[in-house]
Q: What sequence folds into this?
């Protein structure tokens, strides 16, 4: 009976036009505050998730799970190292691939030269430790793209900088030294662009090129193996494998997260700032809801006293206030979530917020999961119910007799 009475009164209070202008204004402010809070919370979490997802996907496309680097640019004895790794960690390792990197200068007439990292790979093995093959613009395998003796794969940003396409040639200036210094003598060679990669990471696409290990040995006279890429098994965690390798080897072993410490620090800082923003928004929502409920109680003070005089219990009063709270919170919350979903999808799909070339991405990514909407919905509804319960306690002290005696 108390539930039916509370529901009936809630409909009367909420949907009946009120003559109290201040209450109408507070209702509108509270509605917009909850809508804005749910919208900002959803968009913020979507952007955080979008950056994390895209960064992880793109980094895993171009980097293996772990990379072993040779100390002081010395060359590995790869067959021996491969046998040792598979013997000790064969159950955790899915694939291995040797490689080598070299700094070179790419030049072309009437264009500013660019220093890039030229990485030599074994195409048949490289495709097993990374997904770089899926990022080639021309639908070819890595082995086919690097089949020619002077073939090179460059990034999309580098190709746009020099205004070149597949089939064109570029001039490479290189040194016999491991690193390019201010005073360095250069040799030159020409390489044919057989494919272009588009990883989506502007810095990588501008400063990285791929050649085969045979081309590195024949053209650059450098057959060193200075890095080994490792792909972990699906059942093995990368961090676990990393710790095991560090325990059994003295080499420098890194994951892509170790290679980009500034990026990881930026993500952590972004999360901290976002959570501070979320906490501030939740505080605003709480104060708005509390103000609205107290105003409703004050506005209906006489009605509540009359209900208590007619025998309504504190439970009925509490249910009435909770229903009023939920009936105001739910529409604004649902409207905020729907608005955030529509705008978030539009931002991600149509690249509405673009970024400059200094960033890893061309636009702000937004990724939603059902957990985002469910979590925000439950948190805001839960906070609203708690505030409603706390506010309802103020109505318990209403003295019906005194209230009616002085009612004008």
A:
């Amino acid at each position: 009976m108390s539930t039916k009475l509370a529901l009936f009164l809630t409909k009367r209070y909420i949907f009946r036009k009120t003559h109290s202008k201040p209450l109408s204004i507070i209702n509108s402010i509270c509605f917009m505050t909850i809508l804005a809070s749910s919208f900002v919370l959803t968009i913020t979490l979507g952007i955080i998730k979008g950056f994390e997802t895209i960064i992880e996907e793109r980094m895993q496309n171009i980097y293996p799970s772990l990379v072993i680097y040779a100390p002081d640019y010395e060359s590995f004895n790869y067959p021996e190292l491969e046998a040792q790794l598979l013997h000790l960690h064969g159950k955790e390792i899915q694939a291995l691939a040797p490689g080598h990197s070299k700094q070179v200068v790419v030049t072309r007439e009437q264009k500013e030269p660019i220093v890039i990292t030229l990485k030599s790979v074994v195409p048949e093995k490289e495709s097993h430790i990374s997904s770089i093959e899926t990022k080639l613009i021309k639908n070819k395998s890595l082995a086919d793209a690097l089949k020619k003796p002077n073939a090179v794969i460059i990034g999309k940003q580098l190709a746009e900088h020099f205004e070149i396409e597949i089939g064109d040639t570029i001039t490479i200036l290189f040194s016999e030294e491991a690193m390019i210094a201010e005073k360095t003598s250069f040799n030159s060679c020409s390489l044919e662009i057989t494919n272009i990669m588009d990883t989506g990471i502007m810095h990588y696409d501008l400063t990285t090129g791929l050649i085969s290990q045979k081309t590195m040995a024949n053209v650059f006279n450098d057959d060193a193996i200075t890095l080994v890429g490792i792909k972990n098994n699906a059942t093995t965690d990368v961090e676990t494998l990393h710790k095991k390798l560090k325990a059994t080897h003295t080499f420098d072993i890194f994951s892509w997260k170790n290679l980009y410490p500034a990026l990881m620090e930026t993500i952590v800082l972004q999360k901290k700032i976002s959570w501070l923003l979320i906490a501030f928004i939740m505080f605003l929502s709480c104060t708005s809801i509390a103000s609205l409920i107290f105003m409703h109680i004050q506005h209906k003070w006489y009605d509540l006293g009359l209900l208590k005089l007619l025998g309504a219990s504190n439970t009925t009063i509490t249910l009435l206030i909770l229903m009023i709270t939920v009936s105001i919170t739910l529409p604004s919350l649902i409207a905020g979530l729907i608005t955030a979903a529509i705008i978030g999808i539009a931002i991600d799909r149509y690249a509405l917020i673009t970024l400059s070339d200094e960033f890893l991405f061309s636009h702000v990514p937004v990724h939603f999961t059902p957990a985002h909407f469910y979590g925000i919905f439950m948190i805001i509804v839960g906070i609203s119910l708690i505030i409603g319960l706390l506010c309802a306690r103020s109505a318990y002290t209403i003295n019906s007799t005194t209230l009616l005696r002085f009612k004008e």
